């Protein structure tokens, strides 16, 4: 919950780097303190969303994959993973043709 609050501040404050750092730290602490959090697909999806905005694409893809693995019936992580892969593929193509 604390990580999500900092993500909200990140967007409300014009993508404040300090809010992003606090959110990532809160997600990491939640995983350390509560082993059940490590198996929470929402945590991985929310962190992946922040990582995507921070352009840390590898971490975002890993988080989306983890969320999809933890919640096999939940389509949202799979859709976001596919969209991010498509975006990165198009970006690579544009850069290669530059």
Automatic annotation (TrEMBL):
<dbReference type="InterPro" id="IPR011990">
    <property type="entry name" value="TPR-like_helical_dom_sf"/>
</dbReference>
<protein>
    <submittedName>
        <fullName>TTC5 protein</fullName>
    </submittedName>
</protein>
């Amino acid at each position: 919950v604390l990580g999500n609050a900092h993500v909200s501040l990140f967007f409300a404050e014009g993508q404040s780097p300090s809010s992003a750092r606090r959110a990532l730290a809160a997600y990491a602490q939640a995983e350390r303190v509560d082993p059940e959090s490590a198996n929470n697909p929402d945590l991985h999806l929310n962190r992946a969303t922040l990582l995507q905005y921070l352009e840390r694409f590898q971490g975002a893809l890993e988080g989306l994959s983890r969320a999809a693995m933890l919640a096999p019936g939940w389509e949202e992580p799979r859709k976001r993973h596919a969209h991010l892969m498509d975006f990165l593929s198009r970006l690579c193509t544009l850069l290669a043709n530059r």
